[in-house]
Design brief:
Low-confidence stretches of chain A: 271-276
Keywords (chains A, B, C, D): Oxidoreductase
Distance between the termini of chain A: 66 Å
GO molecular function (chains A, B, C, D): nucleotide binding; oxidoreductase activity
Mean pLDDT of chain A: 92
Number of domains of chain A: 3
CATH architecture of the largest domain in chain A: 2-Layer Sandwich
Pfam families (chains A, B, C, D): GFO_IDH_MocA, GFO_IDH_MocA_C3
Largest sheet of chain A: 7 strands, mixed
InterPro entries (chains A, B, C, D): Gfo/Idh/MocA-like_OxRdtase_N, GFO_IDH_MocA-like_dom, NAD(P)-bd_dom_sf
Strand content of chain A: 25-35%
Protein name (chains A, B, C, D): Gfo/Idh/MocA family oxidoreductase
Radius of gyration of chain A: 24 Å
Order of helices and strands of chain A: EHEHEHEHEHEHEHHEEEEEEEHHHEEEE
Strand order of the largest sheet of chain A: 12-11-7-10-9-8-15
Number of helices of chain A: 11
Structural class of chain A: alpha/beta
Oligomer: homotetramer
Largest interface: B-C, 65 and 64 residues
Chain lengths: 397, 397, 397, 397
């Protein structure tokens, strides 16, 4: 059983708490820190926490607490982590880890020096559909991975600080791109070095300094490409989709707007309570079990199991650091309009991976380009002569 | 924390065990009974149970056991339940409760007389999408429910006893229809009396005595219609869909074959392990988190919470009994080709519910039939004179 | 080139005209009959017809007209057909053919005695998806057909006469069920005799005498089952889906609400014109090319080609008659609550078809019930002994 | 009635012919040119053309021909167009127009100087779903367009010349990207200047010199972004999807793999003929009416109507030229790794369009950032002070 201090009583803190205390888990939030007393009290009441405080260190230092869960705005992550190091408490942190690579690196070094358990709460690589897809990818069902895309777009975040570029550290790239980057990086291989990034970003709609729409490409050392599409200006709800292309297959995941549940309502039924969506009439697409489907349950289960077993979780501060470094390159690229190298002072994956050859022999003299059955039923190949390079078709049956 | 005796080590027993012991739950299977020693031992090893036995009573009577989970073939349910009564152990039983209404009634009476906790493990009314849909239905988002349909079809069950009409008690109606009946009954209202059933059933494909395909209609006292479509002769995987129609809305649920995860694989990738599906190449449609998505987690959580809180779960033996009574009527109807009354010796819902009036006044003299915007932009009504009954169109804007 | 008299200037008449004159077709509507002068004139102006009239016979008898297209309310079909017989003009008629089997039979006999071309405008068996599916069914991709279901539900028809049981001849069974019946009958085989019908029908919502919701099962001589689900009380648009189950496969067709085009709109964009749907904001599901996708183009092309080639179209008055006879049985069943025989005075299909044997030999002594790969990778069969009937499992690999 | 010379008897020539002669059209292919006599003869026989030839000029010059349809490999387009100019025949050409912008410009200038009708056969902007979506976009249903993406990926083209970079002029960018570029350009506005392009391209799988996978971003003068995703290395069939994001809405189009028709087949049914897909068993996703759904019918109808009416079609050589110029920039960018300007010697759209302001006043002092209903039912705004730039939340109800 874990005894948790929750730092932050907002939207994400409550999501975490619902997951941690749901499904009869053994774990318990025993202390809640919030900046405002009323929020701390309210959370303590709702989740039956014995202890609440507006002093962050008090929550962390609480003698019964053995895990600290950081659910705070980006600009407070580093301070909270340092206090966990000071008090030698296991720490798990919401995403992104830092506002930039330097901040993330500092946090990573601090927890490693302090020797404390550190988990990076990237829930979407624990989403059940992701886990299922990733297992297939690892088993080779898709062959060699060529491209992985993740898209997260919605009409914008809930709290004011997100919209302030100083407090948040960035716009939708930092807020949403961190998910997409880790999803695609995991499909491609977390041991494959991200080499360079090209990113377009713009403030197309919102009266803010940060970007509200961005698209980025991340080139990996083995030639694979990661892609993210993020926006705070999307209309229609939350669009959360992944796509993976391999030499032998394809995966499409839809985590939110089309998951096999469709509802139409005129809204005239009595006592109908609104959904948290752009509208509450017409066709709606609810998610069955949001806390589970977005990965929170599998994430906390793994994190707490790892704490108990003394092992590393799938996602550590190191992963958060790599993601931040990629985001730094994306921001730089959006300004310079160049492919920008990913600066990784610390890299723990493979080195010097080269692009795999894909030549398939057709016969001694030729490579196979394509084999197909024509619409009139014949089997046809397109082949290339190894010496001359000449490409010809041949009907073979 | 619950200490469970699992009776049965087969497909469904393992599904239950995965759910009970997953997600860091506090609960533990401490005893496993299987008919064959090798199966009991294997299960005990896989799930780290201290105690295994081929003597059912021994597992039930085990002093540390406080809940018995029956995951046995249909023809053994009654015996197992009687032993739970004898030893005063809380009991939860897989579906269907009995092979017929009489057997179910006997089991229900026995547990109630013994005063033991009794839960009916109808997982699909705990499926997250069902729970979400049901909440909307209760809140009135669909208005008055007119019709609820549930479909469960697949290429047939795994174990031999299912195919034996004596041991199973029936064919796909009993095996799959029990799910569909409880799903649709819950949408319509579990306090509304099921009045009569019309059922078509046939053995279209399989060399068996029981039906391998059936369609049934269940008329409720308030005029709503429940519908089930079940088959063991479906090709393409497991088709698990619900539809609900109300005066103000519609819900469509797809629990299995189209849930927002699509995979294509040529099957040429290395080391690829087959899915439990009709094929393992081409387009496949995996479910992210089967144990959660089919309702097992929410079901056991609720059951065990209820045991601890001393409350009744959503689904008790009484519900299992009502389902069995409806199935009895379906089987009878399939033979007599008549609408057969549902025989309910025990009924705990509302009595004498009548069909609700649906007349909508358009003005003092007319009822509204339909209001619409025509394709050339005018607003039009079709109305009916209250006295003369004459129906006319009127362009109103 | 065909020169057409269109009888009826309403919703369906305009749909037909759009199809007939669309896509650069050679054909031309040269005369339009409508009951009201203003409607006739408007149609003539819109479609550039030289001749309009409020006298039906005048349109039919017009010397330049060689094909009459009946797009009139049900209660006028018979009169219009008789006039076509009198003037020996080729005739194509909207669905249903008659208000009942007797009326349809009379019309069929009249056109056959007159020796005129007769086409039954059942557009949905010409819908491109249907044609594609039907080709696969004919080619054996689904094996033997066990069941075919068609569903058409929407919030009710546009014109007042539909809601009047005398004028229309019935409610949603006649209006929508005629489509569903011909779709499922074609999948099962138009030469297979429909034997009996079980139907539930009710007036659940609308203040009318006819049914606004019905479900029917049609048993065919070879044991296959047709199913229709029809309603005028559905919310959410027009639900138009078919499903077919065969021993070797499955087909699902969605003709309307989910065809690969999704739109979300807040409705705040300037100048936005409403769609013909239940709402014009939120998530909408437009159909790309309604006239083509619902089969009108392929239908008229085939009809007019057949007139020119002197051949019979896919759908003649005989088909309309069979559909009406099935509907008669459905109405009777809804009242008697019995399976009612389909009364077919004229039957031109096969006679005495029996249910096909489906026994598959596993070895000399056993029939195969099911073969599967278990989740632990073994190949397993469930087989039945030919003499003893005993059913056992065997792991074979 | 148009009398057509078809140049090219291959895959696309037959697709065009099926469309031109389908649906009872008035038009007729009267001459067929193919390089190989056997192909010309076969096509002439299949489509009942009176005249066939292996001399391209002979087909074009044929006195009865009034429209020339170019369905030839890319490297022959220019020669064919010059001959049309010489003989003053109306010409419609398959996509892409040229192998590069210079070639396209030369062709455009030639037809304009010759004063002949010129149509660019970009079928996908005539696809019914595109037309429907485009109408909504024009009507403002999506507000201001921010981003439009089009994706076309499949396992590679049929004929050998496509794979030869000299003959084709490029790889999948030229072959597939030309579609995507024109689709997204049309959604954004064909009168808005494409300014610069960033493109990643690689040869990831095939043993060829051209790219088999590419992703590109096209920046338009008004700040909107077009995106293309193209590949010849995709597994699973042909993926053909468009997405559009506007300030007030979203459109998703799926033209091929998920269009509302799903089929499962074991392949064991008798006489089953293979589909033109990656596999012919398992789950398959046929398109109902490929020729119509991919836009061929609407395209030729418009083209021929325009010839008869003396008007310009939607798509002329000028559009083909703009597309080629964008592709040139994409190829350059893929090499230089820079955003490359689109070089347009000829530009006929708007000049000097600026990014539209999107500031929404909340009150005199504030701009609105976001308005939402919180999950506990309150109405909340996030607003920004016009002078100080300070961003705050306010609960307003």
């Amino acid at each position: 059983m874990r005894r948790i201090a929750m730092l932050g009583s907002g939207f994400i803190g409550r999501f975490y708490a619902d997951s941690i205390e749901g499904q009869r888990s053994k774990d318990k939030i025993i202390s809640i820190y919030a900046r405002k007393e009323e929020n701390a009290k309210k959370f303590a009441a709702d989740y039956k926490c014995d202890h609440w405080t507006t002093n962050m260190e008090e929550a962390i230092a609480h003698p019964d607490v053995d895990v600290v869960c950081i659910a705070l705005p980006n600009y407070v992550h580093a301070d909270a982590v340092m206090l966990c190091c000071k008090h030698k408490k296991a720490v798990v942190t919401t995403k992104p880890l830092g506002r930039n690579g330097a901040e993330a690196l500092q946090m990573m070094k601090a927890v490693e020096e302090a020797g404390i358990f550190n988990g990076y709460l990237e829930d979407l690589v624990y989403a059940p559909k992701f886990l299922k897809a990733y297992e297939s990818v690892k088993n080779g069902a898709l062959g060699r991975i060529l491209w992985a895309k993740s898209r997260e777009t919605h009409p914008g975040p809930h709290s004011d600080w997100f919209w302030n570029i100083e407090l948040a550290g960035g716009g939708c790239i930092l807020d949403l791109g961190c998910h997409c980057i880790e999803i695609t990086r995991t499909f491609i291989g977390k041991d494959i070095r991200p080499v360079e990034v090209m990113c377009w970003a713009d403030t197309q709609v919102k009266p803010i300094d940060a970007e509200d729409h961005a698209i980025g490409l991340i080139k990996y050392e083995n030639g694979a490409i990661g892609q993210f599409e993020v926006s705070w200006a999307f209309r229609g709800g939350m669009d959360l989709r992944d796509e993976v292309m391999g030499t032998e297959g394809t995966i499409w995941i839809n985590n939110f707007l089309r998951t096999g549940m469709d509802m139409f309502t005129t809204g005239k039924g009595a006592d109908y309570v609104a959904e948290k969506a752009e509208s509450n009439t017409g066709w709606l697409f609810p998610v069955g079990d949001e806390v589970n489907d977005l990965g929170y349950n599998h994430m906390f289960t793994e994190m707490f199991n790892c704490i108990e077993n003394g092992t590393d979780p799938r996602e550590t501060f190191y992963d958060g650091y790599v993601v931040n470094a990629i985001i730094d390159a994306a921001y730089k690229s959006a300004k310079t309009k160049l492919w920008e190298p990913v600066q990784l002072e610390v890299w723990r994956g493979k080195e010097g991976v080269t692009k795999q050859s894909t030549l398939v022999d057709y016969d001694v003299d030729h490579y196979l380009i394509k084999e197909e059955v024509t619409h009139y039923g014949a089997k046809k190949v397109v082949i290339k002569h190894k010496q001359t390079g000449k490409i010809v078709e041949r009907i073979i049956e």
